[in-house]
Amino acid sequence: MAVYKRSYKPYEGPITSDRWRFLVLTRYGFSGLFDSRLFTGAFVLSFVPFLIGFAAVYMAHSSALQAMLQMRGPSPLAMNNFFFLAFLGFHAWISFLLTTWQGPQLVASDLANNALPLILGRPISRAEYVLGKFLVIATLLSVITWVPMLILFFLNAGLEGNGWLWSHLWLGGAIFLASWMWIAIVGLVALAASAWLKWRVAASAVMLAFFFVGPGFGAAINATLHTSWGHIFDILYAVKLIWVGLFRVPISTAHDLDMLGIPTWAAWCTVAATCGLSLLLLNRRLKAREVVRG
To answer: pLDDT by residue (tens digit) across 205-264?
Structure first.
């Protein structure tokens, strides 16, 4: 067939450097996540707690609004470390459910369609592949966890005044560090489950089992051996213990934490072991293999 319009030209635009080429995986990973309208709706609804917290911070500093609502006496809303820890915990659970829902598809789809050799055949290493996929989950969870929490933190600082921000900088650091620890755990576990199980539903089930079977296994060890060291197998207990320390909340007032539990350093070891094991599983699984079809 004759071609009358010779308008075809080679691409002459800017070429992304090899160092940042893995971000292509991140961009397309986002497009895959939000293909589902149901997931997009759930993501939008995840900001409802943030709006409630925003209203609570403003109400705690508005005497006019308290008078209109006939709230007498001292304000029941205390903007302290307990408030920010509780809200961060709620946002963490929302981010976990969203990651369990859509996160396992990030790697499973590439393995199911034998696309990994094609991807790693480009100037993208295995480490960059994992980083590109992890940034999808990290960005998604950041928007749900530390970003809205820091907005509430700075809003409260602006309304408090009188040097509140400088005396509570540690609280902002606790929000940031606690959020990124949670992002690392959930993101790496999701990628590891996705890499070993090509079926997304099965990977999501493994994620749920990992986070909820651990407490039962640890409790069984504690009851059998009459010890508290079984908590080292409970990643949720370790996260709670570390968060309580970061937010300077007395353990005696924290829920679901045993006074005779494991020390904080052991909780950090549990977190490090979880992330390290996830990276090890990813390293063993993500290897390009030539696919020959007869």
So the answer is: 888 888 888 888 888 888 888 778 888 888 998 999 999 999 988 766 555 555 457 888
- What six digits make up the tokens of 17? 């450097």
Q: How far apart are alpha carbons 240 and 116 in whole angstroms?
A: 37
Please, are residues 91 and 50 in contact by the beta-carbon 8 Å criterion? yes
Nearest CA-CA partner of 33 in 104, 110, 120, 113? 104
Residue keyed to tokens 């940042």: 20
206, two tokens: 């493994």
Q: What CA–CA distance (Å, rounded) separates 226 from 205? A: 31
pLDDT at residue 14 greater than cutoff 80: no
* Non-local CB neighbours of 287 within 8 Å, separated by 6+ positions: 116, 126
Alpha helices in 47-168 (DSSP H): 48-60, 63-68, 81-102, 105-112, 116-120, 126-144, 146-160, 164-167
Q: How far apart are CA 107 and CA 83, in angstroms?
A: 36
Question: What DSSP assignment string belongs to 178-225?
Answer: HHHHHHHHHHHHHHHHHHH-SSHHHHHHHHHHHHHHHHHHHHHHHHHH
Question: Mutual orientation of helices 200-225 and 105-112 as an angle, nearest 10°?
Answer: 120
**Does residue 204 surpass a pLDDT of 80?**
yes
In this structure, which long-range contacts are made by residues 177-180, counting pairs with CB atoms below 8 Å and at least 24 apart in sequence? 177/246, 178/88, 178/242, 178/243, 178/246, 178/247, 179/88, 179/92, 179/141, 179/142, 179/145, 179/146, 179/149, 180/146
* DSSP class of 34: T
Instruction: Name the residue type at position 217.
Output: F
Place of tokens 């990651």: 99
The domain segmentation of the chain, as residue ranges, is: 78-285
More confident residue, 280 or 222: 280
What is the CA angle 132-135-233, rounded to 5?
110
